Amino acid sequence: MGLTVCLKGCCVASHTTAERAIKIDTEHILIRVLLPVLTIGAVIGTHVGGLSLLSRLLPENIDPVCVLLPLDGLVFIGGGLLIERALKRIWPVHRSAKLSDRALVLTDRRKQPPRVTRIEWAQRVNVRAWRFTVKRPGRIPRGWYCLALHLLQDENEAIFYTFMSRKEAEKLADYEHFVRLRSRKETLSNPDLEAVAEQRRLLKLEDARWEDGAEVSREDFGAILAMLRQHVEMWN
Fold first, then answer.
1. CA 36 → CA 10, 138, 181, distances in Å?
2. H/E run at residue 209
3. Which of 137, 187, 194, 231 could bond to 121 as cystine, CB 3.0-4.6 Å?
4. Residue ranges of the domains in the chain?
């Protein structure tokens, strides 16, 4: 966005850069582990306590379970949402990023002092992109894609990734840049040495993604891709 300022008859053009705040790891490992455990515990506790109470209050011809089943559903949904909010307050996310047409800045407050990784678009950026299909059902539906980006600039590097359906992923303008990650067994059986070397590099990066990659929303991932199309010549 441009802004023109006039000082003593002279017009000076200045530019302001809008920043996009990117949330990272909104469902980190502690929340993913504790949320289902605490939610199921709340449902069981409500069911047992309610059964004891209703058995005393209701007439003998009314089964307390018939009353409790809808309540169990409400506790599962409503209680789960409340527990999730509480957990996110107790264990807040310690990483965040800001995206602008000048740079992508990742701040990691798990370190003291916080570690800041800055990728400047005006300088050369090396990008590697890969994808794989989610095999096991869980938080992410089976058959969805994990799309990952490794950005490297001098000593600075960062890995961002997201999950999306196959249909949604294949509609991306950048989809062809994401190399399919093959299993180690499949890689070793490939006679193409160049392809094997590329897969080995990607497998190493996938290990790094698993250990400390930054998970972002599909919308934020798309915003990063848009910046790559705009500023990184090798990406186009």
1. 63, 12, 31
2. helix 193-212
3. 231
4. 29-90, 95-235
Backbone φ and ψ for 118, nearest 5 degrees, come out as: -120, 120
Closest CA to 27 of 115, 87, 116, 112: 87
What are the Cα distances from residue 138, in Å, to 53, 87, 173, 199? Answer: 35, 20, 28, 26
Interatomic CA distance for residues 40 and 42, integer angstroms:
5
- Which residues of 53-197 form beta strands (DSSP E)? 95-99, 103-108, 115-120, 126-133, 145-153, 156-164, 179-180
pLDDT tens-digit series, residues 131-152? 999 998 777 899 999 999 999 9
Gap between the Cα atoms of 39 and 70, Å rounded: 16
Whether the CB-CB separation of 151 and 126 falls below 8 Å is answered with: yes
- Cβ atoms 134, 145 nearer than 8 A: yes
What's the mean pLDDT in 48-73?
Answer: 78
Lowest mean pLDDT among 32-36, 140-144, 153-157, 219-223: 32-36
Determine the pLDDT at residue 26: 67
Q: How far apart are alpha carbons 24 and 220 in whole angstroms?
A: 10
For residues 17 and 189, give the distance between their C-alpha atoms in angstroms, rounded to a whole number.
49
Reply yes or no on whether the pLDDT at 18 is more than 90: no
